[in-house]
Amino acid sequence: MLAERRHQLILRALRSGGTASVADLAERLDSSAATIRRDLLKLEAEGLLTRVHGGAVIDEEPTPFNDAAAVLVAEKDAIAAQAATMIEDGQSIILDSGTTVHRLALQLHGRRLTVITNNLAVYDELIGDENIDLMLLGGMVIRESRMLDGFMAEDNLRQVHADWLFMGACGLRPGGQVMDTTVAEVPARRAMIAVGDKVVLLADKSKFPGTGMVKICGPEDLDALITNAPEDDATCMTLREAGVKVIPTAPATVDG
């Protein structure tokens, strides 16, 4: 069996059961334990699973927004500050559901902008700023993620246009694929990409490779990446080769 096919079957087994032993996977796939261990090493390096004693596990439950928002705050603020310099007064921007994208909203007070978002934390941040024309996309409220999602959000996005989309992600694969852990969020993010003139990914170094089993987009859909990942990171190099502008931030020293 080809390695790629084995990897697909391993991930399928883990998604259905959450965990599996090396012995069980070897029996299911008619492969040696040594082969399965090598497969698990590779899949873990790509951020697709976590190895545990005797096997592997997948945890695809998204981290609640408030928990994710409380970590790497200084790094996220540095990325957000860099992103804010790209925006000109009078422009329209889409801010997606990510926690780093929320930090960007904090940088926008007093600016003359149109902000389109499905991020309830962004809405709460900007609702009192009369300089900003604020459009909240419709949809089902996903409480833990503090976002609105579903077909209504997608329908709303078909009616708008934006100069910029600033988006987050759960992980970036070595080939430059942008990943999410939550299948439900992907259609809205793809709709955002379709209506944004320029697409900028905001991702701190923990997203290399991060997590995620669902592809949001590839390098061909990105115009820029703002990150504190090392300039010689393999994924950053791949994105540059694909024509994506990789914009570094100064390393943060404080986690707020």
From TrEMBL:
Check the UniProt entry and state the signal peptide residues, or none. Answer: none
Q: Which PANTHER family match?
A: AGA OPERON TRANSCRIPTIONAL REPRESSOR-RELATED, HTH-TYPE TRANSCRIPTIONAL REGULATOR SRLR-RELATED
Q: Which protein is depicted?
A: DeoR/GlpR family DNA-binding transcription regulator
Give an example GO molecular function.
DNA binding
Q: Which residues form the HTH deoR-type domain?
A: 3-58
Which species is the source of this protein? Streptomyces xiangluensis
Q: What is the lineage of its organism?
A: Bacteria, Bacillati, Actinomycetota, Actinomycetes, Kitasatosporales
Record keywords, A-Z: DNA-binding, Transcription, Transcription regulation
State one Pfam family annotation. HTH_DeoR
Q: Which InterPro entries match?
A: ArsR-like_HTH (IPR011991), Carb_Metab_HTH_regulators (IPR050313), DeoR-like_C (IPR014036), DeoR_HTH (IPR001034), NagB/RpiA_transferase-like (IPR037171), Tscrpt_reg_HTH_DeoR_CS (IPR018356), WH-like_DNA-bd_sf (IPR036388), WH_DNA-bd_sf (IPR036390)
